[in-house]
Amino acid sequence: MAIGMTATILIVDDESQNRRLLQALLGHEGYVTRTADGGAQALASIADDPPDLILLDVMMPGLDGRQVARAIKADPATSKIPIIMVTAQTDREARLAALDAGAEDFVSKPVDRAELWLRVRNLLRLKRLSDLLETHQLTLEAEAQTRTAELQARNVDLKRFRAAMDATNDSIVLVNRTTMGFLEVNAPASQMAGYSREELFELGPVNLASISLDQLEASYDAIIAGHGRTASVETARRKDGSTFPVEVHRQAHRAGADWIIVVVTRDITGRIEVENRLEDLAQFDALTGLLNRKLFCETLTKTLDYASATGDTVAVLHLDLDSFKKVNHSFGYGIGDELLIQVSDRLIGCVCERDTVGRLGGDEFALILTMLEGRRDAAVVAEKIQKAMRMPFRLDGHKVTVTASIGISLQPDDASDTDTLLKYADTAMHEAGQSGGDTFQFFTNAMNTEVWRRLELETALQKALKNGEFVLHYQPKAELKNGHVVGLEALLRWDRPGFGLVPPSEFIYSLEESGLIVDVGRWVIAAACEQIREWSRRGIDPLPVSVNVSERQLVRGDLESDVLLALEIYEVPARMLELELTETVLMTSTDQTIAILQNLRAAGVQISIDDFGRGHSSLAYLRRFPIDKLKIDRSFVRELTRSSDAAAVALSTIGTGHSLDLEVIAVGVETAAQLAYLRSHQCDQMQGYFFNPPLPAPELERLLQARISLTAPDD
């Protein structure tokens, strides 16, 4: 690479995203980059146009990084191209293996851009230095036309050579093998060793090394004999007698009948400190500073061993924040992280100094308590934690209140090993969560039975989806003004072999917990569209069909694609399909969710809000969403004629809906009194057992063909 020219860097990595990242980082510094996706392509690229430096991934299919490095160094035409290994391996043996393969340096994944820029810059300077040294040697050996010209050329090269040496942060010295004295030293070499340049010329390399003169000479001879370069981590000595870790690279160059050893030394004190800190981070949670799962389990094992010898009781508390997901959705992940930090501080304040607090991941924490009266003392701490959690958290100007579900297992009452105690505490925590949260539960053997029941249910549901055991029933919606049927709601049922028809209350929760609701929800949308097409083909006037959509379908699935694909496959007009979301889902919606609903509504799909009235949505809040209908929650309809509060919510919902030009539907109408009340207050539609229960498709067809309708109001 000529001075003043832009350096060309070859990036070799089998992962395209890694190549793009490195290109972006290096392009920012003005380097020209090329890429290769594997060892074979890299070798071909190098042979065609050798780069100035190579960034080489260690772990690649086919030829790995070390094999590629050896091939490059074995070729005299490319052996002097510096190589930086890019690796996620941090152990000493892996790094030495990379250096032994011929790499001059390495950077760790994930790549730190500042470190990458420094290492690339320094190696390119070292390469320029090596190139200048060769030029200098050729100049010295060349037959000069005149002594004056020869001296001038030497002076020019020497100035350039010294300028290049002093420009790097690494110590660079040239050693004459015969005299074992310094030929040249750069300014960083003096600064690193604490000697002046003049003092170094008087001393020689052995005074800076941690090995004897004989050992140093033997290492130089080994390089000259054919080993090419050597790289090692050694201990260097300063003038004041102190020592420090260094990374040393040595290279031999012939100069007439003699040999010059180029020694590049880098102070790696900072890197060693970083590695030590990384080792600490491997045991502690980076966000909260609490023990991570690995160290927590190790600590629990040691605590159990100690308690077995002393007779103490050990309690394991497993804690999960109730509705933490809503905090992330409502305020953003930065606020969520701040909440976790404050929760960890409060947990530490709830326990004694001898106890342990750890973060197992996400919003799950665990505690190890050592106590004399296990069950009672553990309950006292759990109540203390609940009280601490109920106090509002101040997060970036917001006051947020969260509660916690806590599960407790005891040693020796429940188990005496780490894995079982953690599993039992987790089981008890889930029981606490299912009880409504903001409570704690001690593990009982009955919970194990419940866990197995849930696992069996989840397995059966997976099989049900695979074997086509799910069916849809349809409940009519009637217009209150004239009694006509104007729509249907598709409701999921499970025709379980050996059990008969299973209502959704017995399996929907398991679908949600396991994540199967995404696949089952996709099936419901497709099955409803298929049924609409079937009725249309048979001459039965189809009615709009609504299907329920879960939060998981919006967040983890691809609802927009699922709906549009089903409409296309079954050739159903978009206006014939309606999606029902609960008010709770609406209130935790993100901008992405709103965009999905807007796209679907623009395509013609109707959007309705189910269970309205429970979340206290404001009129202004509703205006943000592309909705067509509101459905009054059945709990308010049930108490409509007996509770003034329920009636007030129903009337408020009707008024809110009509002010936004939305249709309002009452769900769960079961009595004539409820129907009369809703009619008198201009509710638009109803559905419920007073008119018809959910029906299988064949029974519903007979109802539709008979054109049955709700009794119209008296004039």
**How would you state the average pLDDT, rounded?**
86
Number of structurally distinct domains: 3
Beta fraction of the residues? Answer: 15-25%
The gyration radius over C-alpha positions equals 37 Å
Number of helices: 27
Largest sheet: 8 strands, mixed, barrel
Could you state the oligomeric state of the chains shown? single chain
Give a description of the structure.
This protein has 715 residues and is an alpha/beta fold. The protein folds into 3 domains: 1-120, Rossmann fold; 286-443, 2-Layer Sandwich (Alpha-Beta Plaits); 456-705, EAL domain (TIM Barrel, Alpha-Beta Barrel), CATH 3.20.20. It has an 8-stranded mixed beta barrel with strand order 18-19-21-22-23-24-25-26, surrounded by 4 helices. A hairpin with a 5-residue loop joins strand 18 and strand 19.
Kindly list the characteristics that best describe this protein:
27 helices, 715 residues, alpha/beta, TIM Barrel, 8-stranded mixed barrel, 3 domains
Question: Secondary-structure map with pairings?
Answer:
Elements (H helix, E strand, L loop, with lengths): L7 E5 L3 H13 L3 E5 L2 H10 L4 E5 L7 H10 L8 E5 L4 H9 L4 E4 L4 H29 L5 H21 L3 E6 L4 E5 L1 H7 L3 H7 L9 H15 L1 E9 L5 E13 L2 E10 L1 H13 L11 H18 L2 E9 L2 H8 L1 H17 L6 E6 L2 E8 L2 H17 L2 E3 L2 E3 L3 E8 L6 H17 L4 E4 L2 H23 L2 E10 L5 E12 L3 E3 L5 H7 L2 H21 L7 E4 L2 H5 L3 H11 L7 E6 H5 L3 H12 L3 E7 L6 H4 L6 E4 L1 H5 L5 H16 L3 E5 L4 H9 L4 E3 L7 E2 H9 L10
